[in-house]
Write a structure and sequence with these properties.
Keywords: Iron, Metal-binding. GO terms for molecular function: metal ion binding. Belongs to the pirin family. Its cofactor is Fe cation. InterPro entries: Pirin, Pirin_C_dom, Pirin_N_dom, RmlC-like_jellyroll, RmlC_Cupin_sf. The chain is mainly β. The protein has one domain: Jelly Rolls. It contains one helix and 27 strands. The strands form six sheets. It has a seven-stranded antiparallel β-sheet with strand order 2-23-20-25-18-15-14, with no helix packed on it. It has a seven-stranded antiparallel β-sheet with strand order 3-4-5-12-7-10-13, with no helix packed on it. The protein has a four-stranded antiparallel β-sheet with strand order 6-11-8-9, with no helix packed on it. It is globular, with a radius of gyration of 19 Å.
Amino acid sequence: MSNLDVKPQPTLCGGREDVSAQPVRELLTGKPVQLGESTVVRRLLPNLGRRMIGAWCFVDHYGPDDIEREPGMRVAPHPHMGLQTVSWLHDGFVEHRDSLGSVQTVHPRELGLMTAGHAISHSEMSPKSHGKWLHGAQLWVALPDGDRFTEPSFDHHPELPRVQGQGVDATVILGSLDGATSPGRTFTPLMGADLSLAAGAEAELPLQPDFEYAALAMSGAAVVDGVRIEPGSLLYLGCGRRSLPLRADDGPASVMLLGGEPFAEKLVMWWNFVGRSHEEIAAARQDWMTGDRFGEVHGYDGHPIPAPELPGLRLKPRGRER
């Protein structure tokens, strides 16, 4: 799960100046980005004017892609720092390998959760024997200052709690929804859920008013709080909501609901690193290029991804607390 831009721009995240304390309906579209050798994703976060949703700081949506005669996803070994990665599939399989020695094939509606902590590296690829379709989302969660140097880990949760009713089948990926709580480890107040809406379903989901939320359309078309969202778009909803109306008019639809307490800390995100200063980011880049700290991924047929050059300016975290 990587940002493979060869000239990544620093993204200044956190603080609460962009967080709406009231409900809003801000529809965001994705930017096409090449991921690995053959996968194109829609990058929805960070987006122009919207950098985080709670601690969620990075969202890519991809597919459905016909990979029956293609290699599918192939993302060579690359590093991460200061974040968690969340792999979420609707179709296809992705093989995760990391510098801890973890090897795990993640299937649809299973949680692959990697906590980078102070340093980890990993690769992702479709197995040689794979199905016709590849469809999913890849997301990052920023770690708070007190936990960002934690030991790295990888957790696979094949069984997740579900909430069903009103034509909605919700799988709780992280955090809690309507009394159901995911086994996935979180470090800030956070939630993520995959909502499958039956054709004609009309439902009202309970929310926490002190969380900010967004809805990512995965497949089909859904109406979220009166706004129609198509696949690959993200509707930012702000804070102050106690419930969220959903509707599927044209047929079945699937939506990812992301939320969390607004992330007050100021941070900077560059390439695959989340840090707090230029010096941290520069040191992480140097360590990756010299083979220090991030370890080695075994079993991937290819070379690790080299780090891009740092931009010709100092990376400065910005933002202000509300």
